[in-house]
Amino acid sequence: MTDLCNHHHTASAAGAPIAVQRRWPEEGFTRIPHWVYTDEAIFQKEMNVFFAGKTWNYIGLECEIPEPGNFKRQWIGTRPIIMVRKKNGDINVLENRCAHRGAQICWKNTGTVQDFTCPYHQWNYDLDGNLQGIPFGRGVMGKGGMPKDFSNKDHGLKKLRCANRGGSIWATFADDAPSFEDYCGSEVLAEVDQMFPGKKLTLLGHSRQLIPSNWKMYLENLKDPYHATLLHTFYITFGLWRADSKSENMPTGGGKHSVMISHNEGKKVTEATPEMSRFRNDLELLDKESVTPRREFNRGRVGGAWLFPAAAFGIQANSLKMRHVIPRSPTEHELVFTYYGFEDDDEEMQRLRLKHANLLGPAGFVSIDDSEMLTQTQMGVTGYPEGNAIIEMGGKDTEPTDYMVTEVLIRGFYKYYREAMGL
């Protein structure tokens, strides 16, 4: 296909802008044009079509705000929002944007409040987002104030549609978005219900980092079992994720979601091992507990799902975690891990969940490789915006696979992406 993608502008020698036509490569979803990682107009359209559109976005875990008045500041794309627990125990998700001039009313990531007051002009809102009062609303000494026909009830904070699935909280800006369950589809919803089976959750901690790459690069990274069997010495050496392990890769939701699963088979040498150049058979850990999970509900099945646009969840060893991608600009995204357990975990399991969390995060045994590679990839595509990535490992289709050396989930995503973006 050679569909017209978009126009962007560059300056001519005389200083006048020249329209440049962007066209997707003729090969279709087996190619990714580098400019999708750098173009400002593309980025802004993504924020509107995906994050502010008919999608469900990860907000947080119910255990992060256990008491009335507890709040968590969060982001849906570039839009700040607030998750807050009401006095009756219900959870609201509100726009973090004063109805007056648009300032963030909540500046802290977490805390406890009775209500919300904008620091700029002190407009005050209750935990449902209703405007309660305005200083000097009636003026001072008979002068000024708001017009007589101004109504507080017409100027509250927008309340988002919200869903609670097993203690995980999701929200959408779109009143006409499908239900959360329909949006997930059966395959992804099964993964949600495995990770959040209705047991009470306990918060173990967070890690966050700013990665100088486009947000879609992290999405691709979590849809790419191929790299994980080559790049990550820790994974392939200790058998936590290997090309010669039983696996499943399923594009779902038309390609926007995905399920990626592997089965932990421990340290081994097979006919595939020689091609894993970073495999270290000479490397042993004195503390084998770091790579020896205790058997639990997943029965050695690791991985999880990507719920578009910006959340991944699953189990790694005994570490349960949510990954949330927050786009900051065309060339930057924030990555936040939230680690959790179950209230009925015994002391040993809680210790293992915390210990195995060291695989992930900014300095994790595994994740540290990813953030460095994404940084280097962004540098490469930025320098060559007219280049294209080749996404043909495992074929040129978007059918599910039972093997690791494939880029089928990335192809499935870009098949969906092109249609959704009108490219």
Verbal overview:
- This protein is an alpha+beta fold and 423 residues long.
- It contains 8 helices and 21 strands.
- The chain has a 7-stranded antiparallel sheet with strand order 14-20-19-18-17-16-15, with helices on both faces.
- The longest helix has 17 residues, at 367-383.
- The protein starts with a strand and ends with a helix.
- Residues 56-171 form the Rieske domain.
- Belongs to the bacterial ring-hydroxylating dioxygenase alpha subunit family.
- Keywords: 2Fe-2S, Dioxygenase, Iron, Iron-sulfur, Metal-binding, Oxidoreductase.
- GO terms for molecular function: 2 iron, 2 sulfur cluster binding; dioxygenase activity; iron ion binding.
- This is Aromatic ring-hydroxylating dioxygenase subunit alpha.
Strand order of the largest sheet: 14-20-19-18-17-16-15
List the uncertain runs: 1-19
For the largest beta-sheet, the strand count, sense and barrel status come to: 7 strands, antiparallel
What is the percentage of strand-forming residues? 25-35%
In short:
The protein has 423 residues and is of the alpha+beta class. The chain is built from eight helices and 21 strands. The model is unreliable at 1-19 (pLDDT under 50).
Strand and helix layout:
Blueprint: E1 4-11, E2 17-23, E3 31-33, H1 40-51, E4 57-61, E5 70-76, E6 79-85, E7 91-95, E8 110-112, E9 116-117, E10 124-125, E11 131-133, E12 161-165, E13 168-172, H2 180-195, E14 201-211, H3 215-221, H4 225-228, H5 233-237, E15 247-252, E16 257-263, E17 301-307, E18 311-316, E19 319-329, E20 332-342, H6 347-356, H7 367-383, E21 388-390, H8 408-421
Antiparallel strand pairs: 1-2, 3-21, 4-13, 5-6, 5-8, 6-7, 9-10, 10-11, 12-13, 14-20, 15-16, 16-17, 17-18, 18-19, 19-20
Domain Rieske: 56-171
Pfam families: Rieske, Ring_hydroxyl_A
Protein name: Aromatic ring-hydroxylating dioxygenase subunit alpha
